[in-house]
Write a structure and sequence with these properties.
- The chain is α+β, with helices and mostly antiparallel strands and about 210 residues long.
- Among the domains are: about 50 residues; about 70 residues, [2Fe-2S]-binding domain (DNA polymerase, domain 1), CATH 1.10.150.120.
- It has a 5-stranded mixed beta sheet with strand order 2-1-5-3-4, sandwiched between helices.
């Protein structure tokens, strides 16, 4: 029997369930415009779970500085993995279609709508949620600024607003209020606290 070399195609015996899982993941990945590497990683995750009697995928994430190993259905979004499996409920489920920004988290330092991203695609990634920014008595400057400027009303969108605002600090963004509004346009505040949100962000930017 010849020895397999790196790059060889490996035959994987997949059942109907695993085949459907792969189709679902690659379809979602393509729809999100994710690179082939991310799709391949997702396929590998499902293939690795082929022997799992429950059809679950094992995913290891570094969440707020702590390594977490989860066993989840391959269709589980990053949002549901954080909320339902790790009980990090600061990340909110709003529209569940990537339109409101309430579910925004950081993945490897970049803001991501976690409702549109499958957990299986984030093997080894570093995820930061609102709980990882600061705690009562030791708030992140952006959290403190939102308090000082009343950058919220009902508070439901606030965690996503803050996560996007913190990410914005490392992104190209002009100095004007209009520039900030454009950069934050993916986060909706149904209460209309936009002027206060912009004021909070500008305070931190100028500090």
């Amino acid at each position: 029997m010849s020895e397999k070399k790196p790059g060889d195609i490996v035959d994987i015996q997949l059942g109907r369930r695993n085949f459907l899982q792969i189709v679902g993941i690659t379809g979602a990945a393509s729809g999100l415009g994710l690179p082939i590497a991310a799709q391949a990683a997702a396929i590998a995750a499902v293939a690795h779970s082929a022997a799992d009697a429950d059809g679950l995928v094992s995913v290891q994430l570094k969440v707020n500085g702590n390594v977490q190993t989860l066993k989840v259905d391959s269709r589980t979004t990053l949002l549901d993995a954080l909320r339902d499996h790790l009980q990090l409920t600061g990340t909110k489920k709003g529209c569940d279609h990537g339109q409101c920004g309430a579910c925004t988290v950081h993945v490897n330092g970049r803001r991501v709508n976690s409702c549109l991203s499958l957990a299986a695609m984030h093997e080894g990634d570093e995820v930061t949620t609102l709980e990882g920014l600061g705690q009562p008595g030791n708030l992140h400057p952006m959290q403190q600024a939102f308090l000082e400027h009343d950058g919220y009303q009902c508070g439901y969108c606030t965690s996503g607003q803050i996560m996007s605002a913190v990410a914005l600090m490392k992104e190209p963004c002009g100095p004007a209020n209009a520039d900030v509004k454009e950069a934050m346009s993916g986060n909706i505040c149904r209460c209309g606290a936009y002027s206060n949100i912009v004021a909070a962000i500008q305070q931190v930017r100028k500090a």
